[in-house]
Every structure is written in C-alpha cells, then in structure tokens.
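#struct-queue
[09:14] JT: dropping the first one here, sequence first, then the structure tokens:
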Amino acid sequence: MSEVKRNIEEMISSNDILLFMKGDPYQPRCGFSATVIDILKSYKIEFGFVDVLEDSEVRTTLPEVSDWPTFPQLFVKGELIGGCDILTEMHEQGDLKAVLIG
C-alpha cells in the first residue's frame, strides 16, 4: 500500500466526520463543496476537512481508496456517506441527522 493511501486512511479513521472538498469551509472552491458545507453547518457539528486542491496526491488517490470518483466526499466514522447529491437527498429526507449525530 502506498504512503499516500495510508495517510488518507489514517485521516479518515482519526476523524469522526471528515469532508474531502475543494477549498475550505470558509471559502469553498466549487458549488458542490459549498452546498455540502451549508448542509453540515446547519447541524452545528464539528468536522474535519481536507482541501483536495492543495494536495494533488490526495486528489488523485482518494477515488481509489473510496471507490468514488468525484468531490466532495463525506466520511462518518470511517465510512463513505457520499457526495453532494446523496448528502442533499439525505438532508432533505431527514436521514442525514441520524448519521451525523446518532
């Protein structure tokens, strides 16, 4: 296993909620990342984030690790929950709160 994959897996396992996104929560650099940030902020929870635009190795390797091709990607307790479309749907249906908060 490559060092980059190990580092990604370590980031995922050491954060209860981790968002791989373009930009950061204060300045998202794509509309999909901005939408997910707005959703997460609505729950008033703490979450970690990784700006994939700042690290090309993470940006190119994460899709291999997660088997998910696009960004953002939200992980909760080590499990990929999904990207913008899935999170928006879960939020609108009221299912996301249970995943994030328990």
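[09:21] JT: and here's the second one, same format:
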Amino acid sequence: MEVHSVLIVEQTKISGFILRLLGYSVHTEYGIPGHMSKITLEDTASVYIGSGCSGLELFLIFAGFIIIFKGAIRHKIWFVPLGLLLVLILNIIRIIALIILVYKAPEYMDFNHKYTFVFIVYGAIFLLWIWWVNRFSNMKSK
C-alpha cells in the first residue's frame, strides 16, 4: 500500500472516531474509485478524501526544510517529528471541520477547502520554520 493510501485511511479512521465522540453518526468507506476514502455524516453529507488530502507533501516540505537548514542534529531529531505530528493533527482537524461544514453549511465548503484551511496549515508550517530559524538554526545575529 502506498504512503498516500496509508495516511488517508488512518486520518479517515481518526476523523471518524473523533466525529463519533462529538456525537455524530458517521460512516466511513475505503477504496472509493477516484478517491481513497469517504466520510458520510448523519447519512446526508459526504466528503471524499483523495491523495492530495493526505498531507504527505506538507510533511515533506516541512521536514525537508528543517533537515537541509542549519542546526544541531540533536534538535532536528525531536523538532521534525514534533512538527510532523502538528501538521498531521491540523490535517485531521481540517478533515473534521470540512465534513461538519458540508453537513451544516455546504455553501461554504469550497472556499474553506481551497483557501481557509490551506492558509491555516501553511501558516502553521511557516511559524514552525520561523521558530526553527530563530531558536535552533544557529543563524541568529550574535
């Protein structure tokens, strides 16, 4: 199974679990043609999750930047996994928010999918990079 598939299946499972904890009736499907999974909320609203939703590109961008940038290996060993975990959590929150949005206010889904959540996730990665540069990269003025 390829990395995108594993990430999407696991994020779909976690998203479904959290939505159930929030009191929603949730149905998840996997192996959907043209997509990798689907979450249906309250038997009315569905979100298809494809390979572009896995977050893999975001993980690679973040980790690649930290790995190639100056800084002690001992800090990279904990900073990269911590940052990847944060990006993963944000991606799961994004999936949950989008399915709730489709259920409660579907007219806002496209805008939030294309702009709001992209801004939030890339903004978080940017803030992590700034934190790295200012605190761990050895690039600060002395």
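[09:30] RK: nice, looked through the second one.
[09:31] RK: The chain has one domain: 3-135.
[09:31] JT: good to know. The helical segments are 3-21, 56-68, 73-104, 109-135.
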